[in-house]
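Human: My hope is that you can spare some time for a protein that puzzles me. I am handing you a single protein, as its sequence and its fold in token form. Could you go through the record with me and say what the backbone is doing? Take your time, and here it is.
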Amino acid sequence: MRLTRRAVALATAAIALPALMAATGAAASASAAADPAQAVTAGTKVTAASPAAAALAAVRPAAGSGPAHPVTAYVANFYSGTVTPIRTATNTALKPVKVGSGPRAIAITPDGKTAYVANLRSGTVTPIRTATNTALKPIRVAGTPYAIAITPDGKTAYVTGGKSATVTPINIATNTALTPVKVGGAGAVVAIAITPDGKTAYAVSNPGYSTVVPATVTPISTATNTALTPIRVGQGPDAIAITPDGKTAYVTNELGEHVTPISTATNTALKPIFVFPPAPDAIAFTPDGKTAYVTCIGYRGSAVFPIDTATNTAGKPISVDAQPDAIAITPDGKTAYVLSYDQGTVTAISTVTNTAGKSISVGAHPSFIAITPNGKTAYVFSSRWRTVTPISTATTTALKPIKVGIGPDAIAITP
């Protein structure tokens, strides 16, 4: 995800574009997703996520009321200023949709009708009607839009404002920005996640490499759009994700070498969960919420840690390829897919045995991964090769890459 490095750029200088490229949450945003409101399937970053996030909608349509549209993956292309729709049934790219400058996060409403794209360089959010893949009038928000999440009822989107230390709510019915919410703490607001009941959004403030200024997470009441008391977390927070039951939020602290659980009932930080190799980055939950999987991009090796959410204890590390930058878990909860930014690979991990399978190549510098709602296909984009690689989850094989725009930086999939 490298959100810490991007937070430094946002907090201390004009936007440094190369530092803003490789995400996840998140997303998410995703997203991650995890990245995702949080990227439940993609690992939220929501993913960071991407990302954070970029995020998949946390709430699916009711049984029997399936989407009226074909399932589509939307890829935000940072340098092209476009979004590429991909039909997941055929793995074909459709005509790119022109959005604002520097799209770097995307989230889709729970009904799948609208995708919201955060345009970092133009300071706007562009809604896209998924039925026609047409962009609507951009919405001006505060600061530099960095991450986005949507409430489970689909009524409000929350957009982080980077170094402006704000979160802007957007009324989805009218596509109008409401009064920005000033969050506590210092540094760039780099990630956001919303509880499954939609009552609280949690915004992550990252002061970068500062050892003096504390990093925080600010709860925001979605009923009143007011910020509550900031919660102190570890140094260099990268991503935040919330358990499916909504009881606990987990924050990965890349520089603090631990994960901070937060009780959403009391908005207090619990005992930190230390991991080694250090530098926890992306996070995703199994659908039953019993296990969180955290990628660690440590300087003494790379690994994925399973965390028992009942006891908040880390299990034995699972070795993977270098720089595991994003993670997503299939809807059946049986497999976690971890990408390696340095090696250009994806590794499948069995959640039953917590063992890693053989890595597969997906192109240089993969930055995010998202999985379709039916769990049949994972999508990984490569920023360097301007491609998205579909992976068949049945066979764990990479399919033919799909060409997209310049600098793919986020992905979200309709319900």
Notes: The helical segments are 3-12. The radius of gyration is 18 Å. The first strand starts at residue 72 and ends at 77.
